[in-house]
Every structure is written in structure tokens, then in C-alpha cells.
Amino acid sequence: MGRTPLPFVRPQLPPLEDLEGPYREILSNGMVTTGLYAERLGEALRAHLGVRHAVAVSSCTTGLMLAVQALNLPRGSVAVLPSFTFMATALGAVWNGLRLHFVDVNRETMNIDPARVEEALTADTSVIIGVHQFGAPAPVEDLRRVADAKGISLLFDAAHGFGSLCQGQPLGGHGRAEVFSLSPTKLLIAAEGGVVATGEEDIATHVRLGRNYGNPGNYDCRFPGLNARMSELHAILALKSLERLEEAAANRNRAAHLYRELLRNVPGVSFQKVLENDRSSFKDFSIVVDEHAFGLTRDQLARALAAEGIHTRVYYAPVLHKMEAFRPYAGENPAAELPNTLYLESHALSLPMYSDMKEEEIERVAASLVRIQRHALPIASLNLSA
Ligand SMILES: Cc1ncc(COP(=O)(O)O)c(C=O)c1O
């Protein structure tokens, strides 16, 4: 169409001049890992999140592996978690020898459904893993009640959670631990990185040791840990990115509001619901496309937008219970139990969303989407390729 393509993500990174000083410092003193800046980041995030401990690690995935390990759950016991999520949500559990029981999400919030969790609990269940999907806080209080009633641990994959607010407060303090990601698609960016937030001293100590092989410093390894440290280069980037986090979250919320305004009358388009008094980080802005009312399927819409230079992403397909990696751990998970998961797998579409998204960019996406819907019939006959 002769217009600049709109990518799906556009990481907003601090300018080089903000980084030069600290990078010069670590490059000259040689402290490029396990140094002051990773500790400072932990401190800054502890204050930002309002939690007792925030431990910087190399990724959300390694953070989840160490957080689950810290709970010391019986091998072969069962983690209850959503299937409509990113693969890493399940990885921490399977690396710790747990089995998986996938439960359905609420179709509107796209988050794990506490009623389905409650039904799924058995004597073998040892942990519930919630996810704040696309940054929309999970129903934390209902999940806490369900977990507490059975004395089961509750953890959160808060990969998308920086910039979210739950009842006015940042995430991080729910369940026994919440694990965040700082990869480039997020609002707070370390290039690669994660943070384990917890109120429990023992969990924080375990993650600190575990990110360093399990070595307390005397080379007498206490348990099988990982190299999951955050380098100083990453920590510096994250500290600078933290200065812009609130602005990023506010801008994404403005963008989401405008998307909703411009698309609310489009037949067959609906939006992810954010619970009352919560704020999503809008790590992603996800719509649901009903092909009967819209005139095109989700995939046909994605291809038509791509033809106009607008790149979208399907999150999540395949959903976790269909992945080869998890089949040996999940046993039978009848599809009939996961109708909303299957519906979202084939109907949800994430539109472009950036921390520095401009109004014109939202207007361009919305105008294309509206135009595509109006011309759904001829577009359907074009059979556009992916
Ligand atoms: C829900 C969810 N959990 C975990 C992760 C893994 O994060 P990381 O890449 O920092 O390991 C991601 C990655 O985007 C994610 O979307």
C-alpha cells in the first residue's frame, strides 16, 4: 500500500546517553555481572512493587523454575494452570517434576477461571499457577480463597505484569510469589531478564542461591540451581527503563481506550475485559473476532491487515494442552473441558501496541479494520495468503 509497515511490537528503549555513564563504569571496573546494578534493580523494584523481596534473575522462565523449586512440592504432584497462555507458564512446573492439569479461562477476561480451578483440585494438587494475561490482573482474591481453603500454594506468572494495577496497587504481592519478565515485548525492558517478587524470606533466599547454581559462596552446592543471574548490562537497561514505566503504562492505557472507542461499533469485534478497579499494562491489546458477525475469520482479518502493512499476532495457538512438550505431563485433558480456551485459540488476535504508540497509529489500524469489515465479502473471496 506504499505506507510504512506497522510492526506488531516496537520496544521503547532508553536513549544511549542515559546508558553511557553506567556502561563506561562497568566496562572499566570489570564488574559486568553479579554486581551493584542487579542489586539496585532488585531494591528499586521492591520499592516500586511494594513487596518484601524482589530478586533479579535472567528471565521469567528461570524465575518460574526457581520459584516453583523453592516451594519444595512433592515430585509427581499436580500444578493447576491455564492452557491459554505462553509455554513458559508450564515450564517451571515440569522442570520440577510436577504433572499438569490445564483448566479453562473466562472467555471475556481471558484469565484463569477460579470456579474451574476449584473443580480441578484433588489430593494430588500442590500448586495453582495463575497468569495476568496480557497484563489484565487475574482474579487474585478468588484464587487466593480457593488455594487457602485447600492449603495449596498459589503462584503467579506475572510476565506481563509490570505496569498493571490491581485495586490500585502494582502486582507482585499476590500468592507466594509473582514472577515478571523484562524481555523486549514488555513495558519494563532489560533485553532479557526476570524478577521474582515474594513476601517470603525463604523463597527469596532460595531464588538468590538458585540463580547462582545453588552455591552459597563456598562452592558447596546446596541444591541443583541454575546460572540465572542477571548481568549488569541488563540491570542497567532495566533501571533506566523503570524511569519510563509509568509513562509507558499510561500511554498504553490511552491507546487501548482509543482502540475501544474506534472499534466498539464494528460488528463481531469484542475486547478483553479488565476487572473493575484494575488496570491492565496492555502488554498486548487483544480482540476477539466473531466470524459470523464480522464476515471474516480471525485469520482472514490478520491476513487482510498484513496486506495493509499492519502486523498482528495470534496469542495463543497452539494452546498448551496441545503442545507435544506437555502431553506426557498432562495426561488426558478432554477438549470438552476447555471450550473458552479453544474458542480464544481460534478467535483472539493481538493488535499492534507499543509504549510510545501514537494516536495516528491507532487510527490507522482502526481505520483499516473498519474498512476490511465493510468489504468482508470481496476480501473473503480473495483468499489472501499468510
Ligand atoms: C505469560 C508468559 N510467561 C512467561 C514468559 C517468559 O518470559 P521470559 O522470556 O522472560 O522467560 C512469557 C514471555 O513473553 C510470557 O508471555
Describe the structure.
The chain has helices at 16-29, 36-49, 60-70, 88-95, 114-120, 140-150, 201-210, 232-242, 245-263, 291-294, 298-307, 327-330, 339-347, 359-374, 376-382, and strands at residues 53-57, 78-82, 99-103, 125-131, 153-158, 165-166, 169-170, 177-181, 194-198, 269-271, 285-289, 348-351. It is an alpha/beta fold and 386 residues long. The chain folds into two domains: 16-242, Aspartate Aminotransferase, domain 2, CATH 3.40.640; 245-382, Aspartate Aminotransferase, domain 1 (Alpha-Beta Complex). It has a seven-stranded mixed sheet, with helices on both faces. Strands 10-11-12 form a three-stranded antiparallel sheet. β6 (165-166) and β7 (169-170) form a beta hairpin. α2 runs parallel beside α8, α3 packs across α7 and α9 (245-263) runs parallel beside α14 (359-374). The two termini are 17 Å apart. The protein binds pyridoxal-5'-phosphate. Residues 59-61, 85-86, 88-89, 131, 157, 159, 181, 183, 185, 194 line the site of pyridoxal-5'-phosphate (PLP).
Residues in β-strands, percent: 5-15%
Low-confidence regions: none
Gross geometry: globular
Helicity level: 40-55%
CATH hierarchy, class of the largest domain: Alpha Beta
Q: Structural class, from secondary structure content?
A: alpha/beta
- Which architecture of the largest domain would the CATH scheme give at its second level? 3-Layer(aba) Sandwich
Largest sheet geometry: 7 strands, mixed
Radius of gyration: 21 Å
Question: Strand order, biggest sheet?
Answer: 1-9-8-5-4-2-3
Number of helices: 15
> CATH topology of the largest domain, what is it called?
Aspartate Aminotransferase, domain 2
Mean pLDDT: 96
Question: Span from first to last CA?
Answer: 17 Å
